[in-house]
Amino acid sequence: MAKAKAKKTKGKPRKRGFPWLWVSIALVITAFIAVFMLISPSHDSINSQKLKAAIIDQLYTHHPGEDFTTKVTQELEDYGFEVDPYQGDEVTVDFYRNLPTYDYKLIVFRTHSGAMYPGSENVEIIQGIYLFTNELYTKTKYLKEQLNDELVPARVVEDSPDFFAIGPEFITNSMKGNFNSTVVIIDGCSCLYNNDLALAFVDKGASTYLAWDATVNLDYVDEATITLIENLCSQALPVKEAVDLTMATTGPDPEYYAVLKYYPPQSGSKTLKELI
User: Fold this and answer.
1) For 8, phi and psi rounded to 5 degrees?
2) What would the pLDDT profile of 172-220 be if each residue is shown by its tens digit?
3) Angle formed at CA 49 by CA 264 and CA 266, multiple of 5 degrees
4) Can you say whether residue 26 is alpha, beta or left, with left for phi > 0 and alpha for psi between -120 and 50 degrees?
5) Distance (Å, whole) CA 212 – CA 255
6) Cα separation, 45 vs 90, whole angstroms
7) CATH topology (fold) of 49-118+125-275
8) pTM of the predicted model, to two decimals?
9) What is the distance between the alpha carbons of residues 181 and 104, in angstroms, rounded to a whole number?
10) For residue 269, how many other CB atoms are within 10 A of its CB?
11) Is residue 181 exposed (0-12), middle (13-18) or buried (19+ Cβ within 10 Å)?
């Protein structure tokens, strides 16, 4: 069988045009990358954003702590925090309710606090550890929270007025949102008498919780808290070392022998930078 011969074509070979399509695609991609880099924060700019801290001074109305606030604010600002003070009547139930939504990385509470007993103070069974607000107590407000023991009436001495005080159940059930690896420091009485309040804050997102285990005098605990914050910030010590050095420097409370503790135990090996 005869084989067919390939047909030859005449004329010049076809020229390829300039690849405008690919150039256009490349230009579009380049422009997209450039715009993305302009609108996206760089790693350095994220790290340079201000950290936020709060000083909540419930005691301010009757025991203003100007020197305390000045020293703590300076220490925190030197570390890199932007500090918001809340004083006296600003410290209400609803303020505490919304506190996690403010995205603070460190919160210092200067407040009346302590173990509450059902009825008589002679009863040995502790109802819980509570933080005072500066909002006067009334039976007709926050009924659900009162029925659930999230809020209780609390007074400093026998003839003083009652204020609302928040407990662990309030933190767990009524605070909005969650804390974002927040360091919590409580300049007050008995807030690590047991772990109930600490556990509530940690379950809500706090990375560590530092407080005293018994009643404290105000002058003593103010100075000890300033020392603690210096050890955490200026000295950049891990929590356990900062607590140990604070106790070595200030000693326990001279009248009530309260000592500074922290929770949870695993936070003891971490620095402030690591915790937040």
Assistant:
1) -95, 140
2) 999 999 999 999 999 999 999 999 999 999 999 999 999 999 999 999 9
3) 10
4) alpha
5) 13
6) 33
7) Rossmann fold (3.40.50)
8) 0.81
9) 9
10) 11
11) middle
